[in-house]
Design a protein that fits this description.
Layout lengths: L2 H8 L10 H86 L4 H48 L8 E6 L2 E7 H4 L9 H16 L3 E8 L14 H16 L10 E7 L10 H7 L1 E8 L2 H9 L1
Parallel strand pairs: 3-4
Antiparallel strand pairs: 1-2, 2-5, 3-5
Helix pairs in contact: 2-3
Length: 306
């Protein structure tokens, strides 16, 4: 051992720590602080997502009820129309029979003639009332069909460049459906909208802003492949609801659209268009549907009068 080292050893002196030891301590402390902050942010984000999921669940329940009511209304109107037509035919035949009997009784000059005349007048009034109601219902239903077809034409004109590229437009159950595949809107497992899909949504928003008599429901759909939970989403239902909300927010960037006209709903994997367990079927099922419905205020008022 060199003399200088032996001297230091004898006097109890230890070698000093490296010069960067203090810097290392600072880095460790900063790392612990960062981890704590990240945990807080993740917890806040999770709570926010959970609250939004509860809100979307409420909207989904309301939207399901509304669609069921619309379907029931359409069925009720059609059934009443058929019943009115049958009643009209029956009353028309009764009227003819009464006229025949009336003519036979006129020659008798009996009191029966007066009774038959009153009966004839009552039946004629009832028949006229039925005819009027049938005409009203037919007019309302025709107006609704024309409104739906007009919506389809306007949407088709606005989205011509996207048809056949992951977008389709159809009429189902008295509503116009704009269906967008995932390849147009979202990457797998993501709720961030693709720029090309965003253009299609904004073009549709222009049509909706110019037609305030259209109600809108945006439905998110997924395939049946289980979603791997992360800090933001739990399952396919969460993913579909988040995607529907993303589309609604993009539509509402157009200030000409009243937010009260739009509902977001997450359907998850519950409504597949193709139940097969193939990659082609699953690709069809991963979609976002924008359902457009003309307002039915006049039809609802007519139903309330019945």
């Amino acid at each position: 051992m060199p003399a200088a080292d032996r001297s230091r050893f004898r006097h109890g002196r230890r070698s000093r720590p490296p010069k960067n030891f203090g810097s290392m301590k600072k880095l460790i402390v900063l790392g612990l602080v960062a981890l704590t902050a990240f945990s807080c942010v993740s917890t806040k984000k999770f709570n926010s997502m959970k609250a939004e999921a509860l809100r979307l669940e409420g909207e989904l329940t309301a939207s399901k009820s509304r669609l069921e009511d619309m379907g029931a209304l359409n069925d009720k109107l059609t059934a009443e129309k058929m019943q009115l037509i049958a009643d009209t035919t029956r009353l028309s035949n009764d009227l003819k029979e009464c006229k025949k009997r009336y003519k036979q009784l006129l020659a008798d000059g009996s009191a029966e003639s007066a009774r038959m005349l009153r009966e004839l007048e009552d039946k004629e009034m009832a028949l006229n009332d039925r005819v009027r109601r049938v005409a009203e219902l037919e007019g309302m239903l025709k107006s609704r069909e024309e409104a739906i077809d007009a919506i389809r034409r306007k949407v088709t004109d606005a989205l011509t460049g996207f048809e056949g590229k992951g977008l389709s437009i159809s009429i189902r159950n008295g509503n116009v459906y704009v269906s967008m595949d995932d390849k147009l809107l979202f990457r797998s497992g993501s709720f961030e909208i693709d720029p090309n899909g965003a253009r299609a949504v904004r073009d549709l928003a222009e049509v909706l802003a110019q037609n305030a008599d259209i109600n809108v429901m945006v439905e998110g759909h997924t395939d049946d492949v289980p979603y791997r939970p992360n800090g933001q989403l739990k399952d396919n239902l969460d993913l579909s609801a988040k995607r529907a909300t993303t589309v609604v927010r993009l539509l509402l960037e157009n200030k000409g659209i009243d937010p009260n006209r739009i509902i977001a709903a997450g359907r998850g994997e519950s409504l597949p268009v193709d139940p097969a367990k193939t990659s082609e079927a699953r690709a069809k099922n991963r979609r976002t549907e924008i359902i457009l419905t003309p307002k039915l205020d006049e039809l609802m008022q007519l139903m309330e009068k019945q």
